[in-house]
């Protein structure tokens, strides 16, 4: 029997592109309405799956075979495997750092040093410095960010504002660090030099960060810390009673920072950090471990079993204070599985949208109205934000618009760094503000706050894209290609 030949591919229409987007928006809206803060624990994933099916049906209608669509989804998921490995190991790291006393020590000293009046600004600045040093917003949020949220609890300050400050600082530092993956990816996509790209980003990034810091300073001076000195003293006593507190407990953090600065890849660096945390727990938290283990199989076996459990199921402690129990418990790889599910379904949807040309439909429509340089850059930022929403991954939000707009920027005599900066201003910065985006899902899993809640306070992430658009329309720092001199 003669095998069936593939049907000719029919170009997608604008109406085709609207169908899966409409399905996604309606279902995500329904998920948030029906399930609230729990929407990322399953409902959003189902919404993304049904939107993926809708996009796949459009693809089948236009001549794509199921085999090609399935391969596209597999390749889309493959793109996330590195991030998933990091995500799982971050879960282990949080668990061992809670057990080792690293996070409790950071909270303890934070309560002693940081004043409520400048806490939000300090949190933003600290995260910015750390992220710039190690090139990772994810690692910064999972370590310093988690500890700062604990300090905010102790001071009685707003968790959502603190999360916004953490996100602002983490993404500022990540964006300007030559060690960051996205900072290297954006110029690579458009053919720009890395350090010229970073230098060009300073013009939009630094003013945005300064404005954000000013807002956080103002909010700090006007914030009312609900915890009295007595509550802070109570928290420090609880920490001292349940953990050995000391500067030596910060060694796992120092080890991780050194490995990151030495440019060790994230997965092995975080893995080593988690293992060092486990070793530190055995060395310095013997009383805590002894209170948690089952000695029926012997003390040594009990130690080993508890450490093993911490890697996959996290750590929990009973201090007699419910709020402190919640603060000092968590982590584990198992706690990251829901986020992993969300990332996989989001990338499946993004991969189908790109494969079937449905994303390209929106870009072509945008270019029809982007006549001036200002409108072109504004359209690029809007496309990056839209791709973050639709494709749900910051790497796709950099690569896809970068490929689509590269020729147009060149035709208009704009240097590649204009596009690479715009990709970061629109793509990198907005990714943690979307709950079903890989970055938003990750931040929710480590900070335990819905992106919809902290997004209003991630001032740097909100200001940067708008400032970039203002620069574009005013012609500020828009570099053009110099014409070649004739011989």
What's the β-strand tally?
0
Low-pLDDT residue spans: 483-487
Task: Give the strand content.
Answer: under 5%
The helix count comes to 24
Helix content class: over 70%
The assigned structural class equals: mainly alpha
Succession of helices and strands:
HHHHHHHHHHHHHHHHHHHHHHHH
Number of domains: 2
Largest sheet: none
Overall pLDDT: 85
Amino-to-carboxy terminus distance:
66 Å
Pfam family, one: Na_H_antiporter
Protein name: Na(+)/H(+) antiporter NhaC
Domain Na+/H+ antiporter NhaC-like C-terminal: 169-476
Membrane topology: Multi-pass membrane protein
SSE diagram, text form:
Layout: H1 14-35, H2 43-61, H3 66-79, H4 81-100, H5 102-113, H6 119-134, H7 137-155, H8 159-176, H9 181-190, H10 194-222, H11 229-242, H12 251-261, H13 266-284, H14 286-292, H15 299-313, H16 322-327, H17 337-355, H18 358-369, H19 373-390, H20 394-411, H21 416-428, H22 438-447, H23 451-454, H24 459-474
